[in-house]
From TrEMBL:
Transmembrane segments: 68-91, 152-175, 187-205
Main localisation: membrane
Listed Pfam families: VTT_dom
Family per similarity comment: Belongs to the DedA family.
Membrane topology value: Multi-pass membrane protein
Source organism of the structure: Amycolatopsis keratiniphila
Protein name stated in the entry: Membrane-associated protein
Subcellular compartments: Cell membrane
GO CC terms, sorted: plasma membrane
Alphabetical keyword list: Cell membrane, Membrane, Transmembrane, Transmembrane helix
Domain VTT: 45-172
Length: 216
């Protein structure tokens, strides 16, 4: 497991990337789970950077590709559960005050996430796991509003699995060029947002047609 991944790259890794690779090299899959879990607890740690690194680590033999997906998804869900219970225990006002103390996080991000959850409910939790910033915060309003835990768990697991698998596979396929994934992550975010918009439009259209048939 001790493959010294940072030395295998074409250029030395420093900062967050170097630390993440060192942790995965030392702990394997659990290291990847810890790093991805921190994405939920400390939003400035971007999953768009960490997940491709997990794929890169798998390509170097630190763990298998399947283990990379399983461990990162486990980390995502575990971190989300912690955040869910923080929202449930603290309530809205104390949660908002707590958010204001986190470096690089704006209370407006929480307000937008909360508004999105109140408007879309279950869809917000599922698709929110695939939207940067929102993916780290969406568990808070779910806990504050006391969404049934089993529903939250299923939606969070499915959304995290889709998001993680895509980025891990990209990092695995690109190898030492894993960093290119982060550059194009924004396009995937826009795709998810567009998919949500289309789903909402179809929902509204179906309800309007249903109401028209009843009125007729």
């Amino acid at each position: 497991m001790n493959l010294l991944l940072a030395q295998s790259a074409s250029e030395p890794m420093g900062g967050l990337a170097g630390w993440a690779v060192s942790l995965m090299d030392a702990l394997g899959g659990p290291g990847a789970a810890i790093i991805v879990g921190l994405d939920n607890l400390f939003p400035p740690i971007p999953s768009e950077l960490v997940l491709p690194l997990a794929g890169f680590s798998a390509s170097q033999g630190t763990f298998t590709l399947v283990e990379a997906v399983v461990w990162t998804t486990f980390g995502s869900v575990a971190g989300a559960i912690i955040v869910y219970y923080l929202g449930l225990l603290l309530g809205r006002d104390r949660t908002r005050r707590w958010m204001a103390k986190i470096p690089l996080v704006k209370t407006s991000d929480f307000d937008k996430t909360e508004a999105w959850f109140r408007k879309h409910g279950s869809k917000a939790v599922f698709f929110g796991r695939m939207v940067p910033i929102f993916r780290s915060l969406i568990s808070l309003p779910a806990g504050i509003e006391r969404m049934p835990f089993w529903r939250f768990l299923v939606l969070t697991t499915l959304g995290s699995l889709i998001w993680n698998t895509g980025f891990v596979l990209a990092g695995y396929g690109l190898g030492e060029s894993w960093h290119l994934v982060e550059e194009y992550a924004g396009f995937f975010q826009y795709f998810v947002i567009a998919a949500v918009a289309v789903a909402l439009i179809l929902f509204v259209v179906s309800r309007v047609r249903e109401k028209s048939r009843i009125d007729a």
